[in-house]
Fold this sequence. Notes:
This protein is α+β, with helices and mostly antiparallel strands. Helices cover 28% and strands 21% of the residues. It has 6 helices and 4 strands; from the N terminus they run E-E-H-E-E-H-H-H-H-H. Strands 2-1-3-4 form a 4-stranded antiparallel beta sheet, covered by helices on one side. Strand 3 (61-66) and strand 4 form a beta hairpin. Mean pLDDT is 77; it is low at 116-120 and 122-132.
Amino acid sequence: MSFLExxxxxxxxxxxxxxxxxxxxxxxxxxxGEFISILGESGGGKSTLMNIIGGLDHHYDGDVLLDGQSxxxxxxxxxxxxxxxxxxxxxxxxxxxxxxxxxxxxxxSLKMTKTSPMRNKSSKRRTYSxxxxxxxxxxxxxxxxxxxxxxxxxxxxx
Length: 158
């Protein structure tokens, strides 16, 4: 049994009385700690599949199992914990909070996860973003807001 399993995932949308099949019987297995990229052409169902895996879309056929338990059997609190502690997304538009600085965006995500207590918050803040040292770029990265950044810079926050 894999950590996360997708069994015969099917999804279709109806538009103007015509059914548009987006996902046609997807079967995938993911092991714990595995890093996955989903690639494909525009409109190919990548975001739809990610919404199903992330428990954001419940209107599909098939089943998603986490350690053998169907996501469909989880209550709201269990689904929140699943999304917060188990699954991670890097969205295409990065979903940064525009009125928070880059540093505050990083700290916001830390507050929502079960990290070890931060004894030295400023030290933890400077180095948390995937080992990237924010302190060396304090004026250009840490204190800026996401909308001021170049297209590639928001990805550094994640």
